[in-house]
Amino acid sequence: MCLGIPGQIVAITDAARMMALADISGVRREVNVACVIEDDIAALIGAWVLIHVGFAMARIDEDEAAKTLRALHDLGEAQDELDAMAEGRRALEAQP
Amino acid sequence: MKHVTEFRDPVAARAVLSRIAETTEAIGATREKPLHIMEICGGHTHAIFRYGLDKLVHDGIEFIHGPGCPVCVLPMARVDECVEIAERPEVIMTTFGDAMRVPGTRKSLMQAKAAGADIRMVYSPLDALELARRNPGREVVFFGLGFETTTPSTALAIQQAAREGLANFSVFCNHITVPEPIRALLDDPHMVLDGFIGPGHVSMVIGTHAYDFIARDCGKPIVVAGFEPLDLLQALLMVLEQIRDGRAAVENQYARVVPEHGNPASLAAIADVYERRPSFEWRGLGEIDASGLRIRPAYAAFDAEEKFGIGYAAGPRSVPEPEGCACGQVMTGRIKPTACPQFGTGCTPEMPLGALMVSSEGACAAYWQYGGARAAEPA
Ligand code: SF4
């Protein structure tokens, strides 16, 4: 939850809500990009960002993204993040 | 037991380790009279154990594991209140998975879920918003917790809910801040701390000036660090060089991610939605002035405390920690986890008694996972 995970923005899904699609270690998930828009939201396509609980919090370069991902793998946190995303998807469907 | 991970770049690590050793010698610190360096962030605690950094550095360095793991400092009273809200039939409680096993007085969220409460683990407050949109007949509550790294996410989610007029979404806000407990620790005459390794991702949001008081008023060095092992070692070396040179400053080892003034959009969202509580309770540390956030009256419609009448100010707050649990002493670095009478017997990651055993960022869980378990076994 605190370490976040790098992802690459691949598309803008809802400019008004500042939502974009990110590729996070091969998993695609909609994230909020309000904190990393510099001027034009479309300019984010292709950018690497550090994503915390579904929000892009910092722009990073590709090299930093790769290094961060390696460290997260070593810590066992990368899989935890991806598992949490899958859990979040299931939560939307779950009926009590 | 998990094994420590090898360095990806052992040559670079060896070079920094030997400079750390030289600098420690120059300061004159020894195993008997070590320097106490606190890593504030739970992610750093995890990385230190994962890479065995505590064993690799000169034995004149002792890491003190700080209060920077948000689930570890969540008081029982707040877990109890969260369970109480979750048990209402109309409520869907949503939470990060980390919070599920934190013990409360009656039960944890995990136990409440097993007993039938509709509690769902989500990855993001955005998932909670989506649940609210899809379930207009239910009350969706998000258990908002964490430091400044996650605070912007709930602030932005509340702003979005307000824009959409989502009347069935609220946040049970337990967000806390990093600088205030550090001030409290520095004010405690029993704490002997020589320097700090500052959190990376919290600082990405709040910038580095939030720590100016540590250097200016308390005369202690602090270096903000990334969480790769080399980042941590370099930051430690920067702290030691300050001590050796008789300096105290705020330095930034992680400038590639942490801007000096933080993230303006995040700070604006936090300021718009939240205000400081007069004080907030921390598990093991007690009430700390101005260390917690609450939702501003303008957003009261999205405040679960207001909605369900379970306010921080309502009724007696604090509930005592479980018998024999030494979380507070561990959290302030007074004792090692293995010195807690419950460690490995009454308290394990499977059946945690204290919150430091719940998350991989908690000092007790880290000790247990990376070798401490052995220490608890009978000789
Ligand atoms: S071993 Fe358990 S009870 Fe003892 S300090 Fe650690 S978390 Fe608390």
Attribute tags:
heterodimer, A: 96 residues, flat, B: 379 residues, alpha/beta, Rossmann fold, five-stranded parallel β-sheet, four-stranded parallel β-sheet, 15 helices, 16% strand
Question: What's a concise summary of this model?
Answer:
The complex is a heterodimer of chains A (96) and B (379). Chain A is an alpha+beta fold and 96 residues long.
Any overview of this molecule?
The complex is a heterodimer of chains A (about 100) and B (about 375). Chain A has helices at about 60-75, 75-95, and strands at about 5-15, 20-25, 25-30, 50, 55-60. In chain A, a hairpin with a 4-residue loop joins strand 1 and strand 2 (about 20-25). Chain A is about 30% helix and about 35% strand. In chain A, strands 3-2-1-4-5 form a 5-stranded antiparallel beta sheet. Chain A has a single domain (about 5-95), classed as SH3 type barrels. By secondary structure, chain A is α+β, with helices and mostly antiparallel strands. Chain B is of the alpha/beta class and about 375 residues long. In chain B, helix 7 (about 150-165) crosses helix 12. Chain B starts with 9 loop residues before the first helix and ends with a helix. The chains are: A alpha+beta (about 100), B alpha/beta (about 375). At the A-B interface, strand 3, strand 5, helix 1 and helix 2 of A face helix 2, helix 6, helix 7, helix 9 and helix 12 of B. The structure holds iron/sulfur cluster (SF4). Iron/sulfur cluster binds next to helix 14 of chain B.
